[in-house]
Amino acid sequence: MPPKRYPGQCRATYVFARVQYPMEFAKTRVQLRQDKGIPTPRNPFLVVTQVYQNEGIRALYKGCGALVFVSVASLSLFMSPDLHALLSQRPDMLVRNDTAC
Predict the structure, then answer these.
(1) Quick one: pLDDT at residue 53?
(2) What was the pLDDT predicted at 81?
(3) pLDDT at 11
(4) Which residues are CB-neighbours of 47 under 8 A, at least 6 positions away?
(5) Which long-range contacts (C-beta less than 8 Å, at least 24 apart) are formed by 18-22?
(6) Mutual angle of helices 6-31 and 44-55, in 10-degree steps
(7) Quick one: the chain helix, strand, coil %, rounded to 5?
């Protein structure tokens, strides 16, 4: 049974992912700029503004659904009371025991 805080944590994670995603998009756009002759601004706010003006709001959130899904799914895994109980009983599961790689 999930803790009582879980729905609120899922909502907070969803909102954070939706608000933060345009900056991640801008960072990726600057790193992967394809037109080497055309200067791309390094300021993420300018990149977001240019994309919004030229391509629209939908272009800023392309691929955001996957980030939201992964964020909420990982929250449900890591905030699981079963996982916390297991790790409190077996802390050796957090560290690899073998040193050979």
Answers:
(1) 92
(2) 64
(3) 82
(4) 26, 29, 30, 40, 41
(5) 18/61, 18/64, 18/68, 21/60, 21/61, 21/64, 21/67, 22/48, 22/60, 22/61
(6) 90
(7) 70, 0, 30
Q: What are phi and psi of 48, to 5 degrees?
A: -60, -40
Q: What is the pTM of this model?
A: 0.59
Rounded distance, CA 100 to CA 90, Å?
22
> Per-block average pLDDT, block size 10, for the chain (101 residues)?
68 85 86 72 86 89 85 73 65 57 49
Per-residue DSSP letter, 97: S
**In this predicted structure, what is the pLDDT of residue 34?**
64
CA neighbor of 26 nearest in space, from 42, 41, 47, 40: 47
Which pair of tokens denotes residue 42? 């390094």
